[in-house]
Amino acid sequence: MTLQKKATVVSTSVAALLTLMKLVIGIASGSVAVLASAIDSILDMFVSIFNYFAITNSEKPADKTFNYGRGKIEALASVIEGTIITMSGLFLLYHAIKKAMDGTVSQYLDISLIVMILSLFITVFLVMYLNKIAKKTGSMVIKADALHYKTDVYTNAAVLVSLVLVNVTGFEIIDVIVGSAISLFIIYSAYELIHDGILVLLDRAVDDKIVIDIEKIINSNDRVNAYHLLKTREAGHQTFVEVHLVFDCIITLMDAHRASDDIERKIQELDEQRDWVINIHMDPYDDFMIDHK
Predict the structure, then answer these.
(1) What's the pLDDT score for residue 147?
(2) How far, in Å, CA of 38 to CA of 254, rounded?
(3) What is the pTM of this model?
(4) What would you report as the CA-atom Rg of the chain, rounded to the nearest whole angstrom?
């Protein structure tokens, strides 16, 4: 089992545990904040399960049907996650408003406090673990998973503060305000997932710094007279690079190929954690300049 798959199994198991704890207490106590956190954990569990299948499919090699592999499944998963998280935020906001209108009173505050303290500590350790895996693998799905569990750390802390204040003051409006704030924060946090996923689906180029480094590598090779049509994109764990290199027309194919191999090797050394797919086209003259005069 790969690190990405193992991470999704761990996050799914933790989400299931947190869901059970929060849902029971949230329903019993009537606290919007605890119930909001419980619903968020339910969504986390299903998202983590979905991530497992997304990663499983994205790791499949290219074939006759998917010539470039299935790496974009991770970006699609990120967009779906963000959409689901947004919907959950709207749902929680509705419940907060409903409690304010109905005037429901929270109960079992002592037990709720214990549950939220446990949830906070468990979630903190989970985020640390997922961030470590995301850094090692560069997986967008694991990064997304870490991000929305990071929001859980903030929401759990907010719920904990809310329960303490309600317990001390008896003002139920605090629970309503915190529940509403959590729902808005959840909606806000989902934006980055949707935004990044859509950009990958639209074949956004890699970071400018990497593009500049690639250009420096090409320009540093004495055999290359010029280059054009440098294109980059990312899909899952793969980074695609395409470029046309212009050589002297009298250079041998062997020498041009050696120069191309040298450039390809140096590009791969920029980040050995990436799975590079580099396609170099060799030109005997700058046909790009001629075609665009």
Answers:
(1) 75
(2) 63
(3) 0.65
(4) 25
Report, as ranges of residue numbers, the positions in the chain whose pLDDT lies below 70: 1, 29-33, 36, 59, 103-109, 140, 236, 287-293
Match 């986390």 to its residue by tokens. 44
What does each C-alpha distance from 126 to 69, 147, 161, 176 come to in angstroms? 30, 11, 21, 28
Burial (CB count within 10 angstroms: exposed 0-12, middle 13-18, buried 19+), residue 54 = buried
The CA-atom distances, in angstroms, between 105 and each of 96, 112, 169, 172, 205 are 12, 14, 13, 7, 52
Sheet strand arrangement including 238-247? 224-235, 238-247, 275-283
pLDDT of residue 133: 84
CA separation for the pair 292, 223 (Å, rounded): 24
Phi-psi region of 221 (alpha: psi -120 to 50; beta: other; left: phi over 0): beta
In this structure, how many other beta carbons lie within 10 angstroms of the beta carbon of residue 9?
15
Q: Which residue has the tokens 């729902």?
A: 183
Give the integer Cα–Cα distance in Å for 17 and 139.
25
Dihedral angle computed from the Cα positions of residues 17, 21, 24 and 27, in that order, rounded to the nearest 10 degrees:
-110
Contact assessment for residue 8 and residue 52, using Cβ atoms and an 8 Å cutoff: yes
